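Researcher: Here's the sequence for the chain we discussed earlier.
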Amino acid sequence: AVKFGHKATLLTDDGDVARFSAADHFAECITLENADEPERIEDAADSRWGRFFASGVEWLSQVREPFFLWMHGGSLGTIWDAPLDYRARYNDSEEEELTPSELLLPPNMELPPNFDPDERLKIQHAYAGQVALWDECLETFLAWWDENPLAQTTALVLLSPRGLPLGEHRHVGGGLCPLYNEL
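Model: Thanks. This is the structure I predict for it:
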C-alpha cells in the first residue's frame, strides 16, 4: 500500500473497480456514492462527473506530499446524466431538428440491419453531450489544478483505456462486440 514513501489512494465512482482485487493494494480506497436511480441533472456540478472531479479537488486540497492518487471515472460507460442542452448542441441538421434522446443509461445493443440513422444519431448526440460535460468538468478541475502549488511538483497523467462503440458497425455499448478501432 505504501511504496517508495508514496501513499497510494484510489478514488473511483465505479463500485466494480473498488471491488477488484487490485484495489486492495491501495492504502486507501474512496468509492463515491451514487444514487440508486440515475436522474437527469440541470447543473454540471451535480452530475456524476461534476461530483467526481469535486471529490478529487477535495482530496488533493488535504493531501500531504508525497502521494499517488489514481482517479478512476467510469461514468461514460455507465450513466449519461448530462443536461439535454448538452446533447442538443450537436444537432446541426438543416432539414429537421432531432429531439435529444432521453437516455440515462448507455444502450448495449446491436442495431438491426435496417436501423433508422436518426435513432443512431440521437445516441451519438447523447454520448457527445456526456463527453462535453466531462470536458467541461475536466477544464474546471485543471483550472483549479493550475493554481495549486502541488502542480509545480506533481505529474498529472490522463489515460483512457478504451472507447465505446456508437453504432459504426451496428454495435452500441460495451457489451460483447467485435474488436474495432472505436473499442
